[in-house]
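Sorry, explain these tokens?

___
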Amino acid sequence: MSTQLRSDLERILEHQMAAEQKFLDKARALPRAQQASFRNLLHYLALRREDLRPLQDALHDAGLSSLASAESHSMRQVQAVLQRLGHNIPENQLSDMDAHFGVRAIRKRALDLFGEKAEKDIPHLMVTFESAMAEDYGAVKELVKAGMNIARINTAHDEPDTWAKMVENVRRAAKSTGKSCKVYLDLAGPKIRTTIMGKGWKKERVKLRERERFFLAESWVKVDRREKVIGCTLPGVVKDLRAGDRVLFDDGLFEAVVETPGEQMAELYMHRVSAIKPRLKAEKGINFPDTHLTVRCLTDFDRKVIPFAVANADMLGFSFVRTAEDVAELQQLLREFGPPTLPIILKIETAEAVQNLPSLLYQGMHEQVFGVMIARGDLAVEIGFERLSEIQEEILWLCEAAHVPVIWATQVLETLNKSGIATRSEVTDAARAAHADCVMLNKGKYLLTVLATLQDILHRSGGHHTKKRYIFRPLKIAERFLG
């Protein structure tokens, strides 16, 4: 058995070395501090190209590492197991990234990005601000005292004067309490919302039933008021639709399929209605999980917000990022104000962003520090709720391999935050957040209670593990990136 194990591991090591050689020029284009992290990401992707489950079982049976916790030091772990099997690897050929290297790299970057924290054994805690935080300094101070490490301001709401007051309250509270609290500013991103253009437009809602046909149109198109026509607030989307593409409305409560594409108007077939009342209203979100959108990710509004962000924020959330080119565009805009460049948080909330994650991480590595947010709200709608658990794990794996800090976001202890009582399932979900480097809370009436409860849950769950043993089936993401 040991001969077969050695042969399998030697093959994997060869694949890792080949991947590193293939992307050698790309690695050299990065800052020195990021080159090792990119190499490790390549090693991990090479590891995950094949089905490792039989090998993992054999390694486990032999009392050896099953490679299940090797994200941050993938090649070194393979080499270590080979050494246990008697394979002689010269010292100068051992990877310089061992387990300690990976842990130190992620902790340092999380500290650089999110700041100091009093609770060293749990993730940083981010709180989303509501408008009232601009006028209520006392509430902001209480949040900082209760453990908030980062204040999140969403530029999709309110105005620059309100944002400035929020920032001022955060800075003042941090100084008063002696605690670190960073400011995170979210770019609004493209606004993809419904308008009611045809039948039902006066009431801004329309009845849509299963197996019914209706239209999706550019918001400026003239339509027959007797037909059921939904407008899209983001120009240029309709022309990108193809026959068979899914279109989801109102957080996935309505699922339609494109039957007849068009430049300005497309005919859709309503496949599923999960809403209690089958009425689609104006200002509801639209998702296009199967469509490659050619519209710009960075809006004109976002561009106008950037000077404020550079002057006032500690990090900038990039909403609906899809490609490496999107990231490069924002990086270039920020460099015009630097150095130092304002760190970017890549919000992974579309199916396209998940598919492109290795490329997004590589582009992010052109700066000294950046982060990733698993924006689970839109992401769940895009990829399907049943896949969310799987995909959020994959994002965590790849980010750890790239030594990138991760924010776990959306609906953490949401029921507790709104009603004062938590559900059993959301407590379990909150415990899973211990795998990330930061946890984001939405706004709500019971934020102080939520902060206390979350810290208790994270302490309890984090005390039982730093990792779990996973079994590795092939990752399509790895195959797409490595080719």
The domain at 119-190+295-462 is CATH 3.20.20.60 (TIM Barrel). The chain has three domains: 2-105+471-482, 119-190+295-462, 194-287.
